Prior knowledge:
This protein is 21% helix and 37% strand. The chain is of the alpha+beta class. The chain is globular. The chain starts with 14 loop residues before the first strand and ends in a 5-residue tail after the last strand. The strands form five sheets. Strands 9, 10, 17, 18, 19, 20, 21, 22, 23 and 26 form a ten-stranded mixed beta sheet that branches. Strands 1, 2, 3, 4, 5, 6, 7 and 8 form an eight-stranded mixed beta sheet that branches. A four-stranded antiparallel beta sheet has the order 13-12-11-16. The protein folds into two domains: 15-252, PmbA/TldD fold; 255-506, no CATH class.
Amino acid sequence: MLTRRKFVAGGAALALQGAGANNGEPDRKNFSGMALDLAKKAGAPYADVRINRYQEQGLFTRERQVRSIDSDTSYGYGVRVLKKGRWGFAASGDFSEKALAEVVRQAVDIAEANAALSSQPVRLAPERPRQAKWRSAYTIDPFQVPVEKKIELLLKINETALKVKGARFVASEMRFVREDKFFASSEGSRIEQEIVRSDCSYTVTAVDSARGEFATRSSLAYPAERGYEWIEEYPHLAEAEQAAEEAVRKLAAKPVVPGKYDLLLHPTNLFLTIHESCGHPTELDRALGYEANFAGTSFLTPDKLGKFRYGSQWVNMIADRTQPYGLATVGYDDDGVPAQRWYLIREGIFVDYQTTREQAALLPGMRSHGCAHADSWSSVVFQRMPNVSLDPLDSKLTQEELMAGIKDGILILGMGSYSIDQQRYNFQFGGQVFWEIKNGKKGEMLRDVAYQARTPDFWNSCDGVGSRAEYILSGVFNDGKGEPEQLNPVSHGCPPARFRQVNVINTGRKS
């Protein structure tokens, strides 16, 4: 479930921050060693420490003005202990020895309190300890690029869009994130990671003053685990002009006639359907009923594993924490488990879940797929979504060839509004731009389009997936889960894909 809200999330954590905190830089290996020794002396057979720094920058403009420039840095540590078969966690931004001792004591106390309330002990799947350093792939450090240069590009984007007759408003923004992470466990792991992510997006609004109507078209670019080179490589100015022109055209586009249509879904649209109808339901904690916040539970229960036909033979869903430039790509997860690539859906059959070390012990034959994540040093670690993508395998089909096989259909691009039920079963998705397809050819622009289906019916109607040459990796910074809420960045890739006889409604009809 995508969300724009952001909280400092700590779960059962006690964040100890107060006057007199030491803001100096500790030696992370020595400091984590002290924490692990304290946990061991307190009787915890397992403990781990995360010492993380997060740096964020956001730049926001509208038309010819700068709305805001925001910068934030967060630095601290969290200690997690396993005692009497239950977790305890506490965190602080104070690196003094006194505060560290208090954090460990609080974590141990919480574990003991949890043990008194629950009879089901936590068991961790075995993993060998790792000593490693990992850095995400980026060329230009976005935090070293002058703010003036970034603002100049954003205002150029705005000006380019506003030159199109009928385009009245445009808002643009850039966002950058750096994570500097250190993980140490009582099993002997010591892992350092540096992750950089970048994003530039904009929305153009066209207005028909005579009719009192407006239409919008947002950028089809999506964030990536890259540096400022991603901002420079993407053709933002050309797309801003196209976005403005299409926003104006949407005002005069003909409303869709409700009915059954063949759909040709562009990767910039299909990625969200993958996220909601495959990404969330293959999270093991949802399937077991342990998690229901924001996105509900899952219809993909364990009795379906290995035998349920989720989709047609064209449907191969890959979970991948190693994918180049993927927003959920890491070297190691927050359990210290190496990043992996595996099938969730293989030739249409549901074959595996997203798992952590703790979850792997809950079902026979499971292993950790390295999906443990916390969005802050002050947040509790739990299962989060890896990059989940529709793999084209060896398909040679192009978008034009997929379109040629459609007599009466719709081409849909971009992410729009959406809705999906608490089992991830019944859904509705919109988009940014819609084009009529008649007898294999792209025709007039349409408006007010949304498609509805049940998840297995939709994916079983897929009868063609484009080639790897047309594969696009889209994604979001803001996948929300948990209570208190945590946000996870995640990418979803796919080529264009064709779906037969899907129900389409008109979202603009008035009663």
